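This section describes the prediction task in plain terms. A model, or a person checking by hand, is given the sequence of a single protein chain and must write out its three-dimensional structure as a string of tokens. No templates, partner chains or ligands are provided. The sample shown here is typical of the held-out split.
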Amino acid sequence: MISELRAGYRDKVAVDGVDLTVPPGQVVAVVGPNGCGKSTLLRAVARIHRPISGRVTVGGADIWRLRPRQAAHRLTLLPQAPLAPEGVTVAGLVAYGRHPHQGLLRQWSIDDERATADAMASTGVADLAEHRVDQLSGGQRQRAWLAMVLAQQTPVTLLDEPTSALDLGHQVEVLDLVRRVASAGRTVVMVLHDIASAARYADLLVAMRDGRIVASGPPREIVDARLIRTLYDVEADVLTAPGDGAPVVVASATTSS
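The expected answer:
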């Protein structure tokens, strides 16, 4: 749960008084124009950017009052364009997800082995375990990173632009995987630029502009021409996809006489 969250940089407030309750086991997509505060919100929830005020709670605990290792048992973040250590294999990368579960008195265990194997199997990278991450395709690489955050076994997973720089086929592949993760009981909160993809894959859509939430709810209930105009200052037609009924946004062409 996010309560009255304010966050910013120096003299600029990027997130201004955001309240949001995230249902467990659902996919939440945060959308809005560039600079609206989406990524700052995610970073404040993930303990990367300390908020000015407000609270973030997971399972009743204030995330910013926990020790880092305690917080890492509750949520994990996959940032935009993450960098893997040079030469690391897929198995090595996924193993990093188990670090919060280890310590001086608890080294690598059968539980860690099982968690990494399950994460690689669920993301379809088990057969790439010994491949170097820097030699993978874009879609394979993103699935490897997702396997790493899944291996951490947190109830909440945060994804910042998980489909950026991916072609359409790999975007669908990653978003289908996100849906499977949520269906297994985890909560996924992701920032997306593409509102059409967000509307199709999210249970809850959160639309932001100028640091505030301007609309929140099931995509089929809130995505309309008025919302697109509010967010992006463009006129658009919102159609219904024949297959699943998801909103499809078609921006109106601008013509000059």
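For orientation: The longest helix spans residues 168-183.
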